[in-house]
Specification:
Blueprint lengths: L1 H8 L3 H4 L4 H5 L2 H48 L3 H20 L8 H19 L2 E3 L12 E6 L10 E6 L2 E3 L2 E4 L1 E5 L4 H5 L1
Parallel strand pairs: 2-6
Antiparallel strand pairs: 1-4, 3-6, 4-5
Length: about 190
């Protein structure tokens, strides 16, 4: 009896290999529709992932550009103030240069010279650097030719005198040097 009961619980062989009744009722076109919907969803997911990656790259580039602009702005923040202080520094240098040598041993002259050196040091710390002109080839990006010497072939195209010192602020010309140039590429100097 136990054997008969066990045999009746087991399904016939032809029923064990068949899919469930719900799967049998689904037409073949519905499976194709599900595959097409899955393909569309996969394509949409890939499109959104691509958009996200491009947006992320754009944001990284924006952040890098913003940081560069911030650094450049910080470097040039004192540009206006330094440009206004340069004439005072020029006047101070001219005044100190015209003092007779015997006055240099006076303490108040030494104090004035110390103040001048401190001002120059502070400006150098901010990125100010003088443009070397005397004896160098004339460079219209660094020098402004005010006078062109006549007849001295030895100094052709060279800066023979510096009338006003030029300055750069972080490798950017703040004020070109006013110079006297030897004869030669005068047209280049005027361009």
């Amino acid at each position: 009896m136990a054997g008969e009961h066990a045999a009746s619980d087991a399904a016939p062989d032809h029923m064990q290999n068949e899919p469930p009744a719900a799967a049998q009722e689904q037409p073949a076109g519905a499976a194709e529709d599900e595959l097409a919907a899955l393909d569309r969803a996969t394509a949409r997911a890939e499109e959104l992932a691509g958009r996200w990656q491009r947006t992320q790259a754009d944001f990284i580039n924006y952040r890098r550009r913003a940081e560069q602009e911030r650094n450049e702005l910080a470097k040039m923040a004192n540009l206006g103030l330094i440009a206004r202080v340069l004439p005072v520094l020029d006047d101070w240098e001219r005044a100190m240069a015209t003092l007779p040598r015997e006055l240099y041993r006076l303490t108040w002259i030494e104090g004035a010279a110390l103040i001048q050196r401190k001002l120059q040091f502070i400006l150098e710390q901010e990125g100010l650097a003088p443009i070397e002109a005397l004896g160098n080839d004339f460079d219209p990006t660094l020098h402004e030719a005010v006078i062109v010497e006549e007849g001295v072939a030895l100094h052709e195209g060279k800066v023979v005198a510096e009338l006003q010192r030029g300055y750069k602020l972080h490798d950017r010309v703040l004020r070109p040097a006013l110079v006297r140039v030897g004869p030669g590429p005068v047209e280049t100097a005027k361009e």
